[in-house]
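Example 3.2
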Amino acid sequence: MQHFKLSALACAVLLVTACGGSNDKDDTSGVTQPGEEQEEFTREGASLNDIVKGAAGYGVPEGAEIPVTVMGQMKYFFDRIAAEGVDMEMNLGDGTASVKVLDPNTGDQFLPGKVALGLSHVLIDMKKNQDPDYEHYLEVYRSITATMMSRKPGSSEYLYDNKSFGEYFYLLALNRLRDAGMLDEVFDAGMLATLQERLTYRDLFTGDPASYNLNAASNYYAVAYAIAGLRDRLGWGNDPVTGRDDILKKLQEHYRARSSEGFSDETDGDGRFDRYSVLLIAEVAQRSMEMDNSDAFSEEMKGWLRKSVDLILPQLNTDGIGFIYGRSIGPYGDTAFAEILTAAARMGVLREDEMEMAYAIVQAVAQRYMTFWYDEESHSVNMWVKGRGTDSYRATRRVLGENLSLAHHLIYINERWRELGYNDKRPMSHADLQRLLDQRQPRFLVSHYDRSEEGYVRAIITVRDGTRSFNINLVNGASSYWKTTPYFPIPYSSGLVSGTADVGYPQLTPRLTIAGSTWAPLTYYRNLSVAQEGDVVTVSYDTDGLDSLSSQKRNAAVSVRTTYTFVPGQVSRRDVYTANQAVTVSALQSDFGSYSAAEGASWSTTAPHVATYAQGAVTQYSTQGFETCSLAPFGNRANALSPVGMLESNYSCRISTAMQWAAGSSFETGWDMTYQAQ
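Structure, written as tokens:
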């Protein structure tokens, strides 16, 4: 295998601007090229199938180093439901009351479908393996599904909501049961009639059903498409009968209209690009396979899927960590990487030399799920307690449903790789995987989501430093998320820099107080440029107005030029504020919520402001341009609950003396962060 060393271009300057190509990957120095001869790898660890299904009875295979298999966890929930029925409770071990996870009032509108699908995996397996307990579990399945599809006493209303994703999950369960020859054995004619009436996509659209005016985020196009296609597959049809194909066409039109680069805007043109923007096309591929409609997954859509692969490639890592920015991440951020790579592999989008690497990443995601996200004490995925936090959308009332849907993701991913012939194949070693990542990925990658008519930048910049990657996501969080930290333009990096769901303190981002209102340089990004000289990568962009944190109005009185500089072991930010008119700034603040602890740290109370940490990945953090800084343990618990664990300290820097900025004048603040290599 031939290798090209980046050092050969140490004196060259590589420049990528907002007018460059999408997924700008023009620099391939140091990157192994497609078609080069493959090599043999050292194989180690458990296979994906070992983690998902395991040994007989879903036991953990020897050497798998997981507490339970995915199917073993699913069987655990089936047993709990068999014993406790709708009175089942789950305790997450945080000292709060147990959650009645099957109560009709949990607010989980997807729960009946998730229960039907999750338990069907076990039931189908028991039938296939002629398990002597099959009849007992069949009766439990019939009972719980009938209860969750029943009406309220004396009312025409149903006891449980089951909308959108719930309808899709239920229809998928029905199709899987039919494929196993079990549908009529599990459900009688009356139950099937009820399901045929309830499981439709009508609740996802407003007005005339044929107009397909979506009333939810754009990713729900794929949900509606799945519902329509799975109904067709059961012979239930849709109104109109062309619903499946119409919805797929509508989804494609959304891509073409709202993203010039092949990613899905989660809004209707506001520019909110996050995990789902990259994942959605992989979900469409999977849904197409589920409904036997793979031929409809066009070459254009395969091109979009390839762009999703290219976007995540420089973020891949041996730990199985996925998206770390945007909403609803945590374990779903990890499984999203696995879903994208799996869809690309199954649809023939991956090159042959990428398949082994993709499989190793998928296995790492599954391993991480069972060793990091799974909590042995509660027998549950943990997104909520022991220092972790997620958004209100995935509140603890949904704990059972989240377990079932995450397990389903891993189960279907394993099925796809088995279809590709991987069966019980062990992945390449972490050392080989890391070597391939180092060889094949550039120092930086710019991926444009869209090039808006207004000229605003919608892009993600990924910078690699050894085994660590940084991601600056320049998007509009839109009306729901623009002022929350997961959508800030900061260098997210696992275990180093994180946002916190649903909160908006000034994490690594300046916040200005003007005329009694707070403003920040968010949303209005222009003139992106990324340059490399040797090991130094510089990312610069303008924000042509400040963003109101109360109304998302633009304030053109101040514009900001932001520059990030990446050198091995350090990232820096400088903000140069330019007053476009005379303005009084009564306060300016920037914080750093860190995984590095305040305990044992030292910091200065006067300039130069430097905090030196004794614990954690960040070793030093310094700021410029502020009057005062202080370091303390995180007092605001809500701000401190990141998806992967508690932020230990907050270094807060402020200017409290009012500043009179004359028109045309400039002012500068900044910070430098030094960190340990992973």
